[in-house]
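[audit] Reproducing an earlier prediction to check determinism. Same input, same settings, fresh worker. If the tokens differ from the archived copy the diff job will pick it up downstream; this log only records the rerun itself.
[audit] input (280 residues):
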Amino acid sequence: MPSINASRWYAKKAARLAAATAAGAAGALHPFLGAAPAVRALTYHCFGSVRRDPFCLEPAEFERQVAWLAENKLAVSLDDVRAFLDGRRTLRDGAVLVTIDDGDAGIASHAWPILKRHGIPAVAFIIAGEMGQPGRLAACQVRKLAEEGLAIGSHSLTHPSMARIGWERARDEAVRSRQQLEEVVGRPVTAFAYPYGTRADFDAEVAVILGTAGYDCAFTSQHGTIRPGLPRLTLPRIKVEAGDPAWLFPRLCRGSLDGWRFVDRALWLAQRPHAGVVGA
């Protein structure tokens, strides 16, 4: 992703920090509210050094975050989350699943060595049709990572907005990406992450398509917590961004950005055609 301009960068950072700070009091009360245990799936994208790219995390910053997860014994696997959703396993409130979208080559060179060093499980959602392209993992790398324990899921075949391409193409993206990845890793691939993942990029019809294509869970980019009984094909996540202060990561793992889901929804409503006015 190309870097964003400075004004937009600082505006977004200010908004994230304000949201996290405002949520502090509510987060402090959480243990006393009697809420059911919640798990958070964290979203990462690429690893390296790109100026003002919120999706490209410095490896040193990623290592600090992973070390914190290990020290606090919060990380869980994709299979743990599946069992938690079904009510077959109890997880610690505030447990965290690490997810990585796109299939950036930095997963092999930076992220996975760090995760392995700290004993942290993770799942990488791969754009199947982009394996081997510049900046992406090659099929042989995906296979090796899977053999070493990294869970592999699909991020579609060509990274379209699944809700905007029609039923036939959406099913093709779901089925072919799964088939290609299973040929590479030699095991079932039954987890999916929606490209872009905004509320405009998935809907009930796409969820049905994924289910019939053999997926048993799918993740959006909408903020929120995962709890038992939640619909498995529209699971929320929490974005981790480059350039955030170090104190924000523990807070977002504890819920300080859960409320960003209201921003997600407001943006979706603002972009929907209604009352005869497009984008009103």
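[audit] rerun output stored. Observation attached for the diff report: Residues 36-271 form a domain with the TIM Barrel fold (CATH 3.20.20.370).
[audit] end
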